[in-house]
Amino acid sequence: MMHAIRTPAQAKAWIESKGKSVKDFAEENHLDLHTTYQVLAGTKKGKRGEAHRVAVILGIKQGAEQ
Predict the structure, then answer these.
(1) What is the pLDDT of residues 42-58, one digit of tens each?
(2) How far is it, in rounded angstroms, from Cα 1 to Cα 43?
(3) pTM value?
């Protein structure tokens, strides 16, 4: 089954709906904070490396989570 793909704005709202800050979310998921902010802002599209991992965990892109 395919998961819904979120927009960066929806991903940020999803984090906030869990009562967490972006910093908390990044730390809990062992993500680079700066990269997480860039993906949420749309300045990084998550095509490769850490940005891709962030995008997958946020539900912005489909892919295998590590």
Answers:
(1) 999 989 999 999 999 99
(2) 29
(3) 0.86
